Amino acid sequence: EVAGLGTNFACHTGLLPTRENLAVFAGLVEQVETRIGRPLEIVSGGNSASLLAMKRGEFPPVISHLRLGESLLFGIEAAQGSALPGTRRDGFLIAAEILETWDRDADISGPRARNALGEAVTLKVSGRRHMAVLGIGAVDTAISGLSPVDPNVELLGFSSDHTVVDISRARTFKPGDVLRFVPSYSALATAMSSPYLSSQTIA
To answer: Partner of 8 at 20 to 30 A CA spacing, among 71, 146, 157, 172?
Structure first.
């Protein structure tokens, strides 16, 4: 039994919903309803990237449904990345323990190759820095999608199972302390799929 028909935007190629391509979708809905001889229960006009088109009044009347993830979980309108009024970004946090700290010169001379993940790395800091190694890495989540809650912490780089941060402006941190990060949508999705991370609900 056909319960509904849906379309999607922005996920693969970044294509945004417009009055024109939504009209094409509405035409397909009409064809399906004619073929099955009844109205569809669900006509889904996309995801969080469709919110602006809905707000602009570009939705055909036949659309009755949206599949919202990023907008509900992060308060972000997915097409332009703008914050939605009345929402917060910290509904989800990723926490990682500090395994060790040390002082090190960021300006390392000598030839360089790509890192363990095949990426070319350019350090954003210079001089002698106070750094920390965290017990989290690329096998756990999309590290580049993490934003430190503490503005004095700066993400420097990562490997498969560790992450290095600059805590020069937050020298009170020590091994055993926990740093928290606001994840992006991709970082949250990968973290929730990781068998190495555990989740906790805090009221």
So the answer is: 146
Torsion 22-27-32-37 (CA) sign: positive
Question: Mind listing the pLDDT tens digit for each residue in 120-177?
Answer: 777 777 788 999 999 999 999 999 999 999 999 999 989 999 999 999 998 899 999 9
Question: For residues 148, 154, 156 and 160, what is the CA-based torsion angle, rounded to 10 degrees?
Answer: -20
pTM: 0.80
For CA atoms 123, 144, 146, 133, give the dihedral sign. Answer: negative
Q: What whole-number distance in Å separates Cα of residue 30 and Cα of residue 92?
A: 40
Q: Are 128 and 103 in contact (CB under 8 A)?
A: yes
Single-letter amino acid, residue 87: T
As beta bridge partners, residue 94 has: 181
The residue among 55, 54, 62, 57 whose CA lies nearest residue 6 is 62
Closest to 148 measured CA to CA, from 177, 105, 106, 110? 177
Measure the CA–CA gap between 193 and 186, rounded to whole angstroms. 11
DSSP readout, 73-131?
A: HH-EETTTTEEPTT--STTS-EEEEEEEEEEEES---S-----TTS-----S--SEEEE
pLDDT digit string (tens) for 43-61?
999 999 999 999 999 999 9
